[in-house]
Amino acid sequence: MVLTPQMLDLIVGAISFLFTVLIFSYVLGDNPLFRIAVYIFVGVSSGYIAVVAFWQVIWPQLFYPLLFGAISPLEKGLLLVPLFGLALILMKISPRLAGLARIVMAFIVGVGAAVAIAGSLSGTLIPQIMGAINAFDIVAAGARNIGFLEAITNGSIVLAGTVFTLIYFHFGARAKADGTMHRFGLIELFAWVGRIFIGITLGVVFAGVYSAALTALIERFSSLVNFITSFLGNFQ
Questions:
Q1: Interaxial angle between packed helices 185-233 and 148-168, expressed in degrees from 0 to 180 and rounded to the nearest 10
Q2: How far apart are CA 206 and CA 110, in angstroms?
Q3: Are 63 and 148 within one domain?
Q4: Does some domain include residue 221?
Q5: pLDDT by residue (tens digit) across 59-116?
Q6: For residues 86 and 92, what is the distance between their CA atoms, to the nearest angstrom?
Q7: Where on the phi/psi map is residue 29: left (φ > 0), alpha (ψ -120 to 50), or beta?
Q8: Do the domain assignments include residue 140?
Q9: 93 secondary structure, DSSP code
Q10: Boundary of a domain, candidates 45, 70, 95
Q11: Which of 20, 11, 4 minimizes the C-alpha distance to 231?
Q12: For residue 202, what pLDDT is reported?
């Protein structure tokens, strides 16, 4: 039996229709149908990630150079280090040998923490500082037809939002006579203003997430309608 493009589209549409209905069954509460769809999704995603990691990272960067690569003995010796680490991580399968993987896991966690800190600095904190500074760039604002007063106002709001939000996460406090902990009055006031900026930000983020989810929901309903229409059209 030869699968024609129309039959293949019908099979793909049927699978998509089935999984959409299974996911929508969560409206009725957690049930076996929803769990089946989630388990299949997690399993397929894990398998896909494993295949991509092997063929795009492990094989070309580790096994192929070791087996067929025209590299020096020193380079091959260096490649044995991650291979040895891989072997130690696999020792976690056995409870008695799991301790051998601690050094490798500590190295991975340390590198991951360093990358996360560097990423936070270069991707969040420094750009936020530069954004607060650039908001007062009168020349750049003039190039966008923004007046002096409007540019100063926008820059002041950005700067105030940055400062007050950072102050909100200042947890230094002093113990009172009754044993309770309170921050300095001015810090508490600034933190209250920072809470307003955080609330506005979270509201905007939630609106964006809700809009994206609503768009996905409409797309799924449209896909269901199109599949049913196409399915019924094949029998006319």
A1: 100
A2: 33
A3: no
A4: yes
A5: 988 888 888 878 888 888 888 888 888 888 888 888 888 888 888 889 889 999 999 9
A6: 11
A7: left
A8: yes
A9: G
A10: 70
A11: 11
A12: 92
Contact call for residues 201 and 209 (beta carbons, < 8 A):
no
How far apart, in whole angstroms, are the C-alpha atoms of residue 89 and residue 109? 13
Cα separation, 100 vs 104, in Å, equals 8
Bridge-partner residues for 118, per DSSP?
none
**Distance (Å, rounded) from C-alpha 140 to C-alpha 135?**
9
Residue numbers of the domain that contains 32: 1-70
Specify the DSSP element, H or E, that contains 219. Answer: helix 185-233
What was the pLDDT predicted at 178? 67
**Amino acid identity, residue 102?**
R
pLDDT tens digit string along 143-157? 778 788 888 888 888
Q: What is the pLDDT of residue 121?
A: 87
Domain count, the chain: 2
Nearest CA-CA partner of 132 in 105, 97, 164: 164
pLDDT at 234 over 70: no
**Structural domain contains residue 118:** no
* Rounded (to 5) percent helix, strand, coil in the chain: 80, 0, 15
Q: Which residues lie below 8 Å from residue 21, measured CB to CB, with a gap of 6+?
A: 224
Residue 134 pLDDT more than 70? Answer: yes
